[in-house]
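FAQ: What does a ligand-bound record look like?

Like this one, built around zinc ion:
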Amino acid sequence: MTTAFRPTHQTPGVHHRNVGEVVVTALNDGMFEASFDWLTNIDAADPPALHQASFRAIPPRITVNAFLAQLGERLVLVDSGCGGVMGPSLGRLADNLAAMGVAPAAIDTVLLTHLHPDHVGGLVDAAGKALLPNAELIVHEAEPPFWQDDAVLAQASEEDRGFVLLARSVLDAYRGRVRTIASGEALPGITAVPAPGHTPGHTGWLIASAADSLLIWGDIVHMPGVQFARPGAGMGFDIDGAQAIATRQRIMDMAATDRLLVAGMHLDFPTFGHLARAGDGYAFIPEVWTP
Ligand SMILES: [Zn+2]
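The answer part, i.e. the structure of the complex:
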């Protein structure tokens, strides 16, 4: 007699890749159900048609990832997933780090693309206490003042209020170990690529080592099934919608022109790939999985 085997989730979502001397690990945090209604600047019939044509889920799902870069002796996390703030289908980053043998205390630095909950939720526990005892946070200088602005809190919708309060709680929990930068090198070989619009300080991180480079581009894309083909489509929760669209078009053009390897927090795991021009938009060519 065989024992029934019905897995409920994947074995840890951990995928390593060398970028020159740096080992970059994609870490999956889970996924959540989204809505095509969140998209802006696109005909309502197009997103379901694009998903249908590419055999993607309807309603759409948004994958959440973070990354770990091993830079010599230094362990650098790029974003932190959702932690406990977005429900049981997310927050797997901590288990995935544990599965690869990395303890929270071993993380030296966290590069943040921005302060939305699916990027910083994993930094604090339910009581707002820092979960990474030794990490310095590095974030673009435009990001903390925005979330700490009382006018932003006063104007926020009920849901957005939660976003603002979580960003503040993270900045409080890591007070004294938050470094802000405007552009340029944040760590040896890792450079900030400002990509404003989604949030004022939204930033990609470019890792360059030997002849290789990788752009971890944060939230340039939320719905890969739609926004590669239609880079002009925005998300309703972009803080500055027009700027976010212009930034997406600029970064995608650069990635395609420079044949740059990219990875993203909402690209399909393990997320590494390249952009090729296709019609008025792009096709994303995922890198072949290697053992
Ligand atoms: Zn996000």
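Follow-up question: can I read anything off the structure? Yes, for example: Residues 116, 118-119, 219, 265-266 surround zinc ion (CB under 6 Å).
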